[in-house]
C-alpha cells in the first residue's frame, strides 16, 4: 500500500463544516488549474466532495473518477452524488492502469508517509498521455502546528523540497509557487503561536469573503511569493 493517511486524519472530520465556507478560496484554486482539468481526470482525496461537486459541473471533463480512503466520507459522497465513479481506498486501489489527462490532488500528499512513491504512481498514470498533475499542499515547515498533527500531516513542504521530489518522480514542472501569503501569517499566529486546535465558522467565512479576495488579487501581481501557507504545482509527466 502507498502508506495510508495518518490515523489522526482518519478519525477527524477536518472541520469540514467550517471549511465549507471557503468557497472563494476553492473557486480561485480551481480557476488556477482550469486550463489543465479536461478530458479524463482523476481526483485523489475527494473528502466529502466539496471540490468533486465543482469538477462534476465542468464540461471540459469527459470522465471523472474520485479516490477517498475514509469510509464515512465515501458514504457521504455516494449519498450526494449517486452513480459517481468512486474508489474507496488509496491510489493503490485503483484497479485500472488506463491513462489519465490530469490528476488533481488537493491537500493530500502531506498525509502520505511515502510521498515520493505516490508521486511516481501519479507520473506513471499520466505518462502515456503526457498528462498534467495539479497539486496543492501545505507549505513551510516552520509553521507546522499542533493542528497539522491533528489533521494527520506528516509534513509541510518547502518549494525546493517539492521541486526535487517532483523531478525525481519524472515530472517537468510548469508552475510551482507559494500561495496565500496572508494565510501564512494567519496560520503561524493562530495555530503555531496560539496553538489553537480548530477553525471557527465565522472566522473562515470572514477570511474567505473579505481577506482572501484582496490578498489573492495582490498576489496575482507578484511573480513569486517568498513564502505562503500552501504550494501550488502544475507539472507534466515526462
Tally the helices: 10
Count of domains: 1
Q: Under CATH, the topology is which?
A: Rossmann fold
The structure class reads alpha/beta
Query: Looking across the biggest beta sheet, what order are the strands in?
Result: 3-2-1-4-5-7-6
- The Rg value, from CA coordinates, equals 17 Å
Largest sheet: 7 strands, mixed
Question: What can be said about this structure in brief?
Answer:
This protein is of the alpha/beta class. The chain is built from 10 helices and 7 strands.
Which properties best describe this structure?
238 residues; Rossmann fold; disordered N terminus; 20% strand; globular; 7-stranded mixed beta sheet; alpha/beta
Structure description:
The chain is an alpha/beta fold and 238 residues long. The protein has helices at 7-11, 16-19, 23-33, 52-56, 71-80, 115-127, 146-150, 159-169, 181-193, 201-219; strands at 39-44, 61-68, 85-88, 102-106, 132-138, 171-179, 230-237. The chain has one domain: Vaccinia Virus protein VP39 (Rossmann fold, 3-Layer(aba) Sandwich), CATH 3.40.50.150. The protein is built from ten helices and seven strands. It has a seven-stranded mixed sheet with strand order 3-2-1-4-5-7-6. It starts with 6 loop residues before the first helix and ends with a strand. The model is unreliable at 1-12 (pLDDT under 50).
Amino acid at each position: 500500500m502507498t502508506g495510508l493517511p495518518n490515523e489522526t486524519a482518519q478519525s477527524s472530520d477536518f472541520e469540514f463544516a467550517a471549511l465549507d465556507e471557503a468557497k472563494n478560496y476553492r473557486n480561485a484554486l480551481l480557476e488556477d488549474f482550469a486550463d489543465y482539468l479536461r478530458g479524463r481526470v482523476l481526483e485523489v482525496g475527494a473528502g466529502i466532495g466539496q471540490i468533486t461537486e465543482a469538477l462534476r459541473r465542468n464540461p471540459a471533463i469527459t470522465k471523472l473518477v474520485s479516490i477517498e480512503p475514509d469510509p464515512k466520507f465515501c458514504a457521504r459522497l455516494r449519498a450526494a452524488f449517486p452513480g459517481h465513479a468512486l474508489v474507496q481506498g488509496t491510489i493503490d486501489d485503483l484497479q485500472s492502469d488506463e491513462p489519465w489527462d490530469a490528476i488533481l490532488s488537493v491537500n493530500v500528499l502531506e498525509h502520505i508517509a511515502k510521498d515520493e512513491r505516490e508521486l511516481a504512481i501519479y507520473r506513471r498514470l499520466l505518462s502515456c498521455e503526457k498528462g498534467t498533475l495539479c497539486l496543492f499542499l501545505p507549505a513551510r515547515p516552520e509553521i507546522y502546528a499542533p493542528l497539522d498533527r491533528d489533521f494527520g500531516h506528516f509534513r509541510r513542504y518547502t518549494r525546493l523540497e517539492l521541486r526535487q521530489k517532483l523531478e525525481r518522480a519524472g515530472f517537468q514542472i510548469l508552475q510551482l509557487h507559494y500561495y496565500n501569503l496572508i494565510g501564512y501569517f494567519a496560520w503561524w499566529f493562530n495555530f503555531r503561536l496560539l496553538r489553537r486546535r480548530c477553525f471557527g465558522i465565522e472566522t473562515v467565512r470572514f477570511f474567505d469573503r473579505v481577506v482572501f479576495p484582496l490578498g489573492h488579487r495582490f498576489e496575482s501581481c507578484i511573480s513569486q511569493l517568498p513564502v505562503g501557507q500552501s504550494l501550488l504545482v502544475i507539472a507534466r509527466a515526462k
